[in-house]
Amino acid sequence: MPVFSVTPDAVELDGKPFQVLSGAIHYFRVLPEQWGDRLRKLRAMGLNTIETYVPWNLHEPRPGEFDFGGRIDLGRFLAEAAEAGLYAIVRPGPYICAEWDNGGLPAWLRAAEEIPLRCHDPRFLEPVDRFFDRLVPHLVEHQVTRGGNVLMVQVENEYGSYGSDRRYLRHLADGLRARGIEVPLFTSDGPTDLMVTGGTLDDVYATANFGSRPAERLAEMAALRRWPSFCMEYWNGWFDHHGKDHHVRPAAEAAATLAEMVDAGASVNLYMAHGGTNFGFLAGANAVGEHLDDVYLPDVTSYDYDAPLSEHGALTPKYWAFREVLGRGVELPDPPSEQPKTLPAGRVELTERISLLDCLDVLSTGTVHSAVPKTLEELGQAYGLAVYRTRVPGPRTGYQLRVKGLHDRALVLVDGSPAGVLDRNGPVALPLEIADDAAAVTLVVEAMGRVNYGPLVGERKGLVGGVFHGQQLVHGYEIDPVPLDDLSVLPWGRETGAAGPVFHRGVLHVDEVRDAFLALPGWHKGYVWVNGFNLGRYWERGPQVTLYVPWPLLREGDNEIIVLELDAEPAHPVIEVREQPDLGPATTYIAT
């Protein structure tokens, strides 16, 4: 069986120099039926290795409840990579960043208290160790030392961008070894003194993350930690935020930077080689500002990343440019000659509707009574909506209703009528005049992605502060958690008339199962389900216009489409099927 090793002088496979040519593809962002297709295409591009993160929040959605099957069968994914002729690099966290909700950390970590994260604190280490006890056996059997294809395993992730607790890093590294990891361990950080001195261990392979100027970046890394040159994240594209442009990077320029590293003998991992999709509620977010704790920027549903293999598996100009670089002097498998087929253009009328507030009896996990608002985590909920109902005494005039710590957005209804929308970036208040002895106030709060990078990782969702009328705290709530994880309970046909968010339903008829793209012109903000599967969020703020529908979600004949519109019903409840994706107006972006 192969022997892979890393010393301060060389990366070797079976005693000979080995250049790792890797690309990131996340099994949890691609449906299992499509893994083989994507992996074979990446091998044909010239990669000899793939890399993946492991999202803790998917594998342990509730404390002590583990899932390593179905859509997130890591073992099956690694086996399929081996069948495609690819080695693997695994990055198990516990924190992964990845533009993924909470950086992969489970929301339940802070259900009871604001425990310290990503440090040597027993309140964090105990659940981490429990997770690794269950996760690592799925990796051990796939190591090259056991006849598998896993070459390397990461210790934490970009830790120097966050903290400086080397005792914590040592605990993780020693724990991986004790659980059977025999292949080389590594860390990955930006090549700066701040990040490397805080995020590395002297006896663990230190790799660098960057997007440009490779000779300069690798020299900086070598000066800080003497290890063979390895760019663990070559940012050949970038991700998108709502309200901003779609990021693209010219294929020729990205390929020239890649060629500079390959020609210098450096190992490299493309981030991303194939991005996939942030299905459901799992797109992350950033907070920007000098200390990464100011303006909140949620990520879009698509994780196309302007990668060489597009979100739906199409071979892009960047794919061919990279193949030319990676395939020099090497015989590569032939890539497919045809691009993925898509459904023909069409329209779907959504003919049924029902108000969310008229369905709380079946959607809520149980009404909670509390003197003060509770967060989603305190309600035992990770994602979705929460409906807070309270009464504000009156009569009174000249005051505003203000929400402190709104995470992230709220539709406000007063006596059953919409009064406005509040947002964590502002506005967070609106006028509330009360002519009678009280006003019934309802806040339908949407949790968008948790911040996945920087000091706000671990933030709670819902109403994390208080609700005020003027300077006075508003007390006394009925709270309905609405996780939206099962829409089969919706009572279609029930009489409905409540204001607020509305579900719409229609039928998409398919003669031949293919990929599809859904556009929602005239709609404002919400989520789309296809045959019960949550595709993710749409928002008129863009830049993303179409949502990707992978072919495995569809079946020949009729397919159920449900749209939850949160803000305002469209004049015509129709969605469009388009043959090509539209990720919005583009801007050229080259990461540093």
Automatic annotation (TrEMBL):
Transmembrane segments: none
Xref: SUPFAM superfamilies: (Trans)glycosidases (SSF51445), Galactose-binding domain-like (SSF49785)
Pfam families: BetaGal_ABD_1 (PF21317), BetaGal_gal-bd (PF21467), Glyco_hydro_35 (PF01301)
Domain annotation Beta-galactosidase galactose-binding: ranges: 501-559
Name of protein: Beta-galactosidase family protein
Signal peptide interval: none
Chain ranges of the Beta-galactosidase 1-like first all-beta domain: 373-482
UniProt keyword terms in alphabetical order: Glycosidase, Hydrolase
Superkingdom of the organism of origin: Bacteria
Hydrolase is among the record's keywords: yes
Domain Glycoside hydrolase 35 catalytic: 13-326
Family listed: Belongs to the glycosyl hydrolase 35 family.
